Amino acid sequence: MRAADPEFYREASSLQYGKVSTKISKDKIDKMAKELHDREEKRQEFSRRRKFREEKDIDSINDRNEHFNKKIERAFGKYTLEIKNNLERGTALPD
């Protein structure tokens, strides 16, 4: 918007600081309204993946711990799978 209109700053600097100018033209108001409307439409299009998933089991206390747990699972997951399954079934404790 401002890059396309080289007169944008020149007109703004001619006004005195703190003074209200009534010389705002209708087309500039329409241009501003259009820009705000376009921004709002763009925000409606934007969508990001949410981090929270209800079906996922929670095994961490914060984001840093979650990242650490993922790294540990990648490295040692195949070795600890049987122990985890026994703990879930309740058969991990000796008689």
TrEMBL record:
<dbReference type="GO" id="GO:0071014">
    <property type="term" value="C:post-mRNA release spliceosomal complex"/>
</dbReference>
<comment type="subunit">
    <text>May be part of a spliceosome complex.</text>
</comment>
<keyword id="KW-0747">Spliceosome</keyword>
<comment type="similarity">
    <text>Belongs to the SYF2 family.</text>
</comment>
<dbReference type="GO" id="GO:0000398">
    <property type="term" value="P:mRNA splicing, via spliceosome"/>
</dbReference>
<dbReference type="GO" id="GO:0000974">
    <property type="term" value="C:Prp19 complex"/>
</dbReference>
<keyword id="KW-0507">mRNA processing</keyword>
<comment type="function">
    <text>Involved in pre-mRNA splicing.</text>
</comment>
<keyword id="KW-0508">mRNA splicing</keyword>
<dbReference type="GO" id="GO:0071013">
    <property type="term" value="C:catalytic step 2 spliceosome"/>
</dbReference>
<keyword id="KW-0539">Nucleus</keyword>
<dbReference type="InterPro" id="IPR013260">
    <property type="entry name" value="mRNA_splic_SYF2"/>
</dbReference>
<dbReference type="Pfam" id="PF08231">
    <property type="entry name" value="SYF2"/>
</dbReference>
<protein>
    <recommendedName>
        <fullName>Pre-mRNA-splicing factor SYF2</fullName>
    </recommendedName>
</protein>
